[in-house]
Amino acid sequence: MLLISVALACSINPTETCSDAYEKFVKCFNKEQSEESQTIFCRRFQLYQKHGGLIQPMMDIEREYRPLRKERNVHQKQGVSLNCQNTYCHASNVLKDLSKIYQSVDLREAGLSNPAQQQGNCESCWIFAMTSLMETSIKLQKFDNSQSFWTLTKDISEQFILSNTFGSVQEYCTGSDLMIGFDYFNKNFQTVEVKENYDYSPEAYRSRYQSHTILPPLIEPNLFLKPFQTFTVFGDSAQKTPVVGIHVDDDEIFSKNTVWTIKSYLSRGIAIGAAMHTGSNQDTLNKHDGRTVLNIKCDMQRQYLDHQVTIVGYGRKNGQDVWIIKNSWGPTWAGNGHMFVPIGENSMCTERYAVAIIPKTYDLFSTKPYDMGTHQRGGQFDLDHDNGKMVKKGMEPWLLAVIIVVPIVVIGIAIGVFFMCRQMKRKSTPTTINSPMEYQ
Questions:
Q1: CA angle at residue 376 from 370 to 378, to 5 degrees?
Q2: How many CB atoms lie within 10 A of CB 245?
């Protein structure tokens, strides 16, 4: 219903001219008109007319993406300090893989992931990935009475981070990386802020940023919060970072062990920071309706990671193993701002980067999954139903099916062959007739 209502609100009909449609689009989404944006809109409106889909607020935006900073200096000489503002700094994995995980996880239905947000024209996807990870971390954290404020559902302010992050990490809406962003946040911020204090409005705050004016936290000092633990940086024992590296070698895709590790984190309720390539697939992505699994080939030699997102679940969609990807293109894009990509296919290069943060009070030695509650499946943007049972490592659902079905089939064939042989034996044996006359 959400998808239909947006299209109706704009009153845009696929039979009308592009100029008429663009005029309605501008009014509907409160856009500024320009020749460039109209050209982009008209090209995508033709796709809408041909293939159907959804009139979305991103239809007039064509970003010039920059590659994310590739990991360097992994093997530093002992005693040489890393500059974590131009190098990926992360800790080694600190959580042991779970021996059993859920067949499927959806952090949205578990109440651990807030709705998708809209980054707009600002290249701030990395900040939205950061806030998504921290919002989930807050929901997993235990608070005493003095900080019960955080037990309520809270949206973290992206604008607070955007406006207060300086240096080589970014130049306001020009892109960066969440790993570098977390390093800056950990070293320079006292706390996160809530959206109700600083709503996201990049243009409104641009002049303040250019004058290097800091946005002060408005929450009470006793509520100040950095919702993560910190660990020793891999390759530099003198530094700390909140970022745990699960897979940061973007020259390789996730192995089966990495997939299990990511699923273990998600089964614990912990979201995953991820990255993807969108530069050559913007038209396809723009009209994606979120109902199907999106599989777009990744050219590992030519396509770099240019956009950061969050993995908030896994399971099966339309019978296919998938990741649930949370984007920052607004709740009207795709499936309420989320999409499904196949596991093991590296669709749009989504299986080349995976990091996480650990909630402040999380027990690092815990081997228990998070209680996800009751599944609420069946919707067009939901995972397929499953029986909710746990799966052992190496015993994924498809393998369980093989283990169960194959012996049954073999036994069935054996029984069939046995009775067939008996029948053939009976037919080949002469029949004895009990009669007083015998042939000699």
A1: 135
A2: 23
| Residue among 229, 224, 230 nearest 146 (CA) | 224
213 CA to centre of own chain: 33
Residues 6+ apart with CB under 8 A from 68: 126, 175, 176, 177, 275, 304, 305, 306, 308
User: 101 - beta bridge partners?
Assistant: 391
Percent helix / strand / coil, the chain, rounded to 5: 35, 15, 55
Q: Are 223 and 212 in contact (CB under 8 A)?
A: no
| 423 half-sphere exposure, CB direction, 13 A CA radius | 6
E strand map for 183-279: 231-233, 236-241, 244-247, 272-276
Sequence-ordered list of residues with C-beta below 8 angstroms from that of 320, at least 6 positions apart, any chain: 293, 342
- Angle formed at CA 148 by CA 143 and CA 152, multiple of 5 degrees: 105
**Contacts (Cβ under 8 Å, ≥6 apart) of 251:** 300, 352
Supply the mean pLDDT for the chain.
83
Residue for token digits 């596991």? 343
Joined tokens for residue 270:
């912990």
Task: For residue 246, report the phi and psi dihedrals to the nearest 5 degrees.
Answer: -95, -45
User: Is 307 in a helix, a strand, or coil?
Assistant: strand
> Which residue has tokens 């089966």?
256
Cβ count within 10 A of residue 269: 22
pLDDT digits (tens, 9 = 90+) for 64-92: 445 555 544 444 444 567 788 877 889 99
Q: How far apart are CA 437 and CA 102, in angstroms?
A: 76
Among 308, 386, 316, smallest CA distance to 349 is for: 308
Region at 303 (left for phi over 0; alpha for psi -120 to 50; beta for the rest): beta
Would you state the CATH architecture of domain 100-386?
A: Alpha-Beta Complex (3.90)
Return the beta strands (E) in 6-160 as ranges.
100-102, 105-106
Rounded Cα distance between 173 and 175, Å, is 6
Phi–psi pair at 405, nearest 5 degrees: -75, -45
Q: If 0-12 CB within 10 Å is exposed, 13-18 middle and 19+ buried, where does residue 84 land? A: buried
pLDDT band at residue 278, thresholds of 50, 70 and 90?
confident
Sequential DSSP letters for 310-342: EEEEEEEETTEEEEEEE-SB-TTSTBTTEEEEE
pTM of the model: 0.79
Write down the pLDDT at residue 348: 92
> Over the stretch 381-411, which tens digit does the pLDDT of each residue have?
999 998 888 999 875 554 444 445 555 655 6
